[in-house]
Records
---
Amino acid sequence: MTGQADALVTLRAADTRHLELALEKVRSPSQVDSTRSAIVLSRLIERRAQ
């Protein structure tokens, strides 16, 4: 596959420690070459499901 994103994962963590553990699990498979993370602290816009 080529391009910026091959998968998009959304997760919630109770705290920073749990977030780090979850990210380590995402990065651990040998098929994962690299990761990029973005953290959303709050939603500014609520979107309705279509």
---
Amino acid sequence: MNLVVVGMAAGAFLAFMSFQFGIGGFLGALVFMAAGAILGRVAEGRLDLRRVWEALTGRRSSS
């Protein structure tokens, strides 16, 4: 499945949530989708949360 199909499915899901449950459902779905994406990247090893935290707290630069 390519990224266009995934993006279309995510858009259709967010549209459904906004039509069915209003702005609260839209924002809730958006938050859970973002959390799932972050957790997926951590599980794959593509995102190191320790380095993200260090960059956010100013202990290390982001470069």
